[in-house]
Amino acid sequence: ASEIGRIRAQVAELVGRAAQAVRIIQEQYRFAYSAEAPLLVAVSALAEGGDRIFAEEALRAGWPLDVVLPFGREEYERDFTTPESRAHFKELAARARAVFEIDSAPPDGDSSAAYETAGFVMLDHVDLVLAIWDGGASGGRGGTREILDEALRRDVPIIWISSAVDRQPVRWHQHESVPLFAGSKDPDNFTALLTE
């Protein structure tokens, strides 16, 4: 439970920093942006664990939630082992601004291509990836490591919160971790990440 609390606190801080950085960018480049408040949108598959923590903290901060599912909801819900997990998924999906269900039935029980497609669709719609990951080896096609590798190929910045080690979030860059803030609370550190 303490690990979940640590991860949740780190996600909440990063959601807040992202919002602050976007406001700074809007102010610095007001000639290029409208005066309307920036719209920050969380994109998640609502898988158990980190996906849901991120979705909850983004919703708590007032961000809309867009959900990308590897297949229809009923099929996807079979991935969740408990009735409580399925109910939690349904509750979060009901709060989403949009739910995109990829119409792909897993052939012969292999759902890896569908997960990979969902991961790629998410990458098509984000400017930054917040990865809550143990840093371990691949779990197979469409797993966290493969989606992060694709984000690197696409030059999408990645902030990594370790689910295995109690440490500050880092930037995952070219397959190595780089200190993100080096203890600084200066919002310009986050702003620089978003404007690279």
How are the secondary structure elements laid out?
Blueprint: H1 2-28, E1 42-44, H2 50-60, E2 65-69, H3 73-77, H4 83-94, E3 98-101, H5 112-124, E4 129-133, H6 144-153, E5 158-162, E6 170-173, E7 176-179, H7 187-194
How many beta strands in the DSSP annotation?
A: 7
Note the main sheet: 4 strands, mixed
Number of helices: 7
Question: How far apart lie the N and C ends?
Answer: 36 Å
For the residues shown, what is the average pLDDT?
88
Radius of gyration: 17 Å
Strand order of the largest sheet: 4-5-6-7
Helix content: 40-55%
Poorly predicted ranges (pLDDT <50, ≥5 residues)? none
Shape: globular
Strand content: 15-25%
Supply the helix-strand structural class.
alpha/beta
Element-by-element helix/strand order: HEHEHHEHEHEEEH
Give the oligomeric state of the chains in this entry, treating copies of one chain as homo and distinct chains as hetero: single chain
In short:
The protein has helices at residues 2-28, 50-60, 73-77, 83-94, 112-124, 144-153, 187-194; strands at 42-44, 65-69, 98-101, 129-133, 158-162, 170-173, 176-179. It has 196 residues and is an alpha/beta fold. Helix 1 crosses helix 2 (50-60) and helix 5 (112-124) runs parallel beside helix 6 (144-153).
Q: Main attributes?
A:
four-stranded mixed beta sheet, 196 residues, three-stranded parallel beta sheet, alpha/beta
Textual characterization of the structure:
The chain has helices at 2-28, 50-60, 73-77, 83-94, 112-124, 144-153, 187-194, and strands at residues 42-44, 65-69, 98-101, 129-133, 158-162, 170-173, 176-179. The longest helix is centred in the N-terminal third of the chain and has 27 residues, at 2-28. The chain has a four-stranded mixed β-sheet with strand order 4-5-6-7, with helices on both faces. The radius of gyration is 17 Å and the shape is globular. Helices cover 44% and strands 15% of the residues. The chain is built from seven helices and seven strands. The protein is of the alpha/beta class.
